[in-house]
C-alpha cells in the first residue's frame, strides 16, 4: 500500500504524536472509525499499516470532507487545477500573491454559500490552496460560516504535491465519508472497531479559544457529551483512543479530564504548540491520550 501523509496543514494535527499514538494501536485493525478526521495523520497511518476492510471517517466541517471526497474520486483533476494555481503563484510578486489569495478566498466563500455539485471540485481545490497560503494553515470561520483567515506571505508554498495526493487517493478508495455530528458514527462502531477521536481541544486559557472550525463551538458541555459517547462505545467493546488538551498545563488543580475519563487510562505526552503568533510562546506542552485499550485486552 502507498505511504501517504496529510495533504493539508491542520491545527492540532497528530503527525508529531504518531509514535505515541501507535503504541495504543491494537495488534490488528479490520474496522476503523475516526469521528473527527481533521488532517488525517492517524487515518493515513492506519490505512497504510493495517489496510482495514471497513473504514468510516467523519467531520462536521463539510468543506473538509468534500476535499477528501474529491481527492478520492477526482484526484487527477485536483492535481491539474492545483498545478495551474502553483504556476501562477510562482510567477507573481508577493504583493500580487496577496491579492491573488484574497480573490480566491472570496471565490471560496461564494462557493461555500451557494455551490452546485459540479462546483465541489473547484471548492476542494481552493480549500487546499487557501490552507497552504493562509496563516499557519488555520481553518477558521466567522459567525456567518465564512472563511476569514489572512494571507501568510509564504514565498514558495507547495500546494500541489502530486505524489502524495495520488497516494492519499489510493488509500481513500475503501473509505466511507460523512459530514455530520460525530454521534452519527455510533451505529458503525461495534466490538470489532478501533476508534481514534481527536475533537476540538478544550482551550487552556480564555484567550486561546480563538478558532472555530464551524459555526458551532465546542464547550465543556460538548466535552462532557463526548465523554459520555466514548464511554458508550467503549461499553460496546470498541477499542478507543482519544486526544485532548491537558488543563494542568495552566492549572495543576484542574481535574476536568481526569474526572471525566477516570475509568480510562490517561497518559500525558509532550507536544509542540505551533499556532501562537508569537514564536517565543511556542513550545512543548502536555497533551492527553485517553484509552481503553488496556482495559479491553
TrEMBL record:
<dbReference type="InterPro" id="IPR029063">
    <property type="entry name" value="SAM-dependent_MTases_sf"/>
</dbReference>
<keyword id="KW-0949">S-adenosyl-L-methionine</keyword>
<dbReference type="GO" id="GO:0032259">
    <property type="term" value="P:methylation"/>
</dbReference>
<dbReference type="InterPro" id="IPR002052">
    <property type="entry name" value="DNA_methylase_N6_adenine_CS"/>
</dbReference>
<protein>
    <recommendedName>
        <fullName>Site-specific DNA-methyltransferase (adenine-specific)</fullName>
        <ecNumber>2.1.1.72</ecNumber>
    </recommendedName>
</protein>
<dbReference type="InterPro" id="IPR023095">
    <property type="entry name" value="Ade_MeTrfase_dom_2"/>
</dbReference>
<keyword id="KW-0808">Transferase</keyword>
<dbReference type="InterPro" id="IPR012263">
    <property type="entry name" value="M_m6A_EcoRV"/>
</dbReference>
<dbReference type="GO" id="GO:1904047">
    <property type="term" value="F:S-adenosyl-L-methionine binding"/>
</dbReference>
<feature type="binding site">
    <location>
        <position position="198"/>
    </location>
    <ligand>
        <name>S-adenosyl-L-methionine</name>
    </ligand>
</feature>
<comment type="similarity">
    <text>Belongs to the N(4)/N(6)-methyltransferase family.</text>
</comment>
<dbReference type="GO" id="GO:0043565">
    <property type="term" value="F:sequence-specific DNA binding"/>
</dbReference>
<dbReference type="GO" id="GO:0009307">
    <property type="term" value="P:DNA restriction-modification system"/>
</dbReference>
<dbReference type="GO" id="GO:0009007">
    <property type="term" value="F:site-specific DNA-methyltransferase (adenine-specific) activity"/>
</dbReference>
<dbReference type="Pfam" id="PF02086">
    <property type="entry name" value="MethyltransfD12"/>
</dbReference>
<keyword id="KW-0489">Methyltransferase</keyword>
<feature type="binding site">
    <location>
        <position position="14"/>
    </location>
    <ligand>
        <name>S-adenosyl-L-methionine</name>
    </ligand>
</feature>
<feature type="binding site">
    <location>
        <position position="59"/>
    </location>
    <ligand>
        <name>S-adenosyl-L-methionine</name>
    </ligand>
</feature>
<feature type="binding site">
    <location>
        <position position="10"/>
    </location>
    <ligand>
        <name>S-adenosyl-L-methionine</name>
    </ligand>
</feature>
<dbReference type="InterPro" id="IPR012327">
    <property type="entry name" value="MeTrfase_D12"/>
</dbReference>
<dbReference type="GO" id="GO:0006298">
    <property type="term" value="P:mismatch repair"/>
</dbReference>
Amino acid at each position: 500500500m502507498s505511504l501517504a501523509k496529510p495533504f493539508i496543514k491542520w491545527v492540532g494535527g497528530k503527525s508529531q504524536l504518531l509514535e505515541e499514538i501507535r503504541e495504543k494501536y491494537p495488534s490488528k485493525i479490520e474496522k476503523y472509525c475516526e469521528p473527527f478526521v481533521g488532517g488525517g495523520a492517524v487515518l493515513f497511518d492506519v490505512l497504510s499499516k493495517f489496510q482495514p476492510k471497513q473504514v468510516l471517517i467523519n467531520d462536521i466541517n463539510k468543506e473538509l470532507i468534500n476535499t477528501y471526497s474529491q481527492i478520492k474520486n477526482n484526484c487527477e483533476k485536483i492535481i491539474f487545477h492545483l498545478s495551474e494555481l502553483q504556476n501562477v503563484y510562482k510567477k507573481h510578486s508577493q504583493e500580487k500573491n496577496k491579492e491573488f489569495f484574497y480573490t480566491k478566498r472570496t471565490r471560496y466563500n461564494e462557493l461555500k454559500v451557494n455551490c452546485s455539485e459540479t462546483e465541489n471540485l473547484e471548492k476542494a481545490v481552493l480549500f487546499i490552496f487557501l490552507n497552504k497560503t493562509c496563516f499557519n494553515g488555520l481553518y477558521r470561520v466567522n459567525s456567518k460560516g465564512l472563511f476569514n483567515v489572512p494571507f501568510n506571505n509564504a514565498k514558495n508554498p507547495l500546494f500541489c504535491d502530486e505524489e502524495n495526493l495520488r497516494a492519499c487517493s489510493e488509500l481513500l478508495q475503501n473509505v466511507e465519508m460523512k459530514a455530520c455530528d460525530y454521534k452519527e458514527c455510533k451505529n458503525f462502531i461495534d466490538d470489532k472497531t478501533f476508534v481514534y477521536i481527536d475533537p476540538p481541544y478544550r482551550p487552556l486559557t480564555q484567550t486561546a479559544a480563538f478558532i472555530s472550525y464551524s459555526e458551532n463551538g465546542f464547550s465543556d458541555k460538548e466535552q462532557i457529551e463526548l465523554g459520555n459517547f466514548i464511554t458508550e462505545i467503549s461499553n460496546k467493546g470498541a477499542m478507543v483512543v482519544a486526544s485532548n488538551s491537558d488543563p494542568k498545563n495552566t492549572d495543576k488543580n484542574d481535574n476536568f479530564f481526569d474526572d471525566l475519563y477516570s475509568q480510562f487510562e490517561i497518559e500525558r505526552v509532550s507536544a509542540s504548540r505551533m499556532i501562537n503568533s508569537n514564536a517565543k510562546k511556542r513550545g512543548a506542552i502536555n497533551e492527553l491520550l485517553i484509552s481503553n485499550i488496556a482495559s479491553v485486552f
